[in-house]
Amino acid sequence: MDRQTISALAHGDHPIAAPLSDASVARLLERALPRAAGRLLDLGCGSGEWLLRALDGRPGLRADGVDLAAASLESARAAAERDGTGDRLTLHHQDATKFTASHAYDLVLSVGAAHAFGGLLPTLRAARGHLAPGGSVLVGDGFWEREPDRATLDAGFAADEFADLATTVDRVVADGWLPVYGHVSTLEEWDDYEWSWTGTLTRWALDHPDDPGHDDALKAANAHREAWLRGYRGTLGFVTLVLRRAADA
């Protein structure tokens, strides 16, 4: 079973692929989209959950999503048709780092996809290339809540992969951005996300004992749970920022 399929199954009960509650997602979108109109771009949109929630209740908003996972895009397309927003959503099956458009966007969103761009600052540089004057970026990425110990590093992280929260924000500001809102995921949000990820995948495997992917799904769920509980729980944080360009940047 490939990683995209495992991820799609694991996010079945928590479609926002980040440690954020529904209330936090709604609040971030309200701050990032103060008007119910404009254009939105999600770089690395997955199943399009951010796009679907943004389009709901904003009839003047049009959105584009970009991702390499064809199955996830099909899921997003089907959900938009069910919601009645399919005519305002355009999905692009391609590498988000190579996406181009003929128009700029009022909001560029990329949450939990910084790895595709090589880190947070490269993600912001990519977003800036799509941003209309006065527009905003909504970006989410990890940071170290505390110095990573050996258990965290053994879970698959590098010590220099992230910085602490203050340093992370300092780097963003030094790059010409100003935070106009932010949210630090709570331990409760993290636990709900991780229990959902591992639990949903485990349940799928138990419910499909004869599926060829049964063993791979259980192995992935067990490995993820071990890395979380014995590795990065309480060490890896997640911050989501609403940013605008500094006037002189």
Structure commentary:
By secondary structure, this protein is α/β, with parallel strands linked by helices. The protein has a single domain (3-244), classed as Rossmann fold (3-Layer(aba) Sandwich). It is built from 9 helices and 7 strands; from the N terminus they run H-H-E-H-E-H-E-E-H-E-H-H-E-H-H-E. It has helices at residues 3-10, 22-32, 49-55, 70-83, 120-128, 150-154, 165-174, 187-207, 214-232, and strands spanning 37-43, 60-67, 89-93, 105-111, 131-144, 177-184, 236-245. The protein has a 7-stranded mixed beta sheet, with helices on both faces. Helix 1 crosses helix 8 (187-207) and helix 8 (187-207) packs antiparallel against helix 9. The chain is globular, with a radius of gyration of 18 Å. The N and C termini lie far apart (45 Å).
Summarize this structure briefly.
With 249 residues, the protein is an alpha/beta fold.
